[in-house]
Amino acid sequence: MRFKRASQGELVRRAPRADTFKSRDLVDVLRAGLGAWLKDEGFKRLGSNGWTRPLADHHLIIAVQCSQSGWDPRAGNRFVVEFEQSKTPRRATGFNRARVWSLLDELRRREALDIISRVAVSLPDPDEQFLFQLPANVREHYLRSFAPTTATVDSSDVWFAYYDERDAAIWADFLARSLGPALQEFLARLPSYFGHRSLSSDRD
Hints:
Elements: H1 23-40, E1 44-46, E2 50-55, E3 58-66, E4 77-86, E5 96-99, H2 106-121, H3 128-133, H4 136-143, E6 160-162, H5 165-188, E7 192-193, E8 196-197
Antiparallel strand pairs: 1-2, 2-3, 3-4, 4-5, 4-6, 7-8
Helix pairs in contact: 1-5, 2-5
């Protein structure tokens, strides 16, 4: 079985990198690209992958979360950016939480989907020996990482694909232009927890 390479006109598949591009490497690139916006908005670092600022009587948190499956030398990895409002400056303690995808307008969603697809078709070819070792259903799922995304602007949740510094820089540029409007949308909505509206008692 040979995996079909990117056709003419598509991005050329890159060679596998020798070293791992870890989640902290991704965050470092995003932090550099978002630094000016974060500073202007009054955010300070929170742990290794987040930022926080006071907001009225609580705290506003922005954090990067990579997929727990980890970085793959052929398929890369995925990440999301989360917004949270909490009474304490600690992640996963809040009364209002949303991922950035749910806060993007249609135009930015289309741009994100295009970036995801471009990353996918430029990934290194999957290792054929590794593929043969996978069960058929797992193999099919794994190979989806190497093809344009099937997600649409109406999808409820989408993770952002990346492989290396180049992809991270592209996402940093996208987020530098998108986090401001997304944050405004987040604060304008009724409090929810990933789409589930909070009861007033949850916030007491």
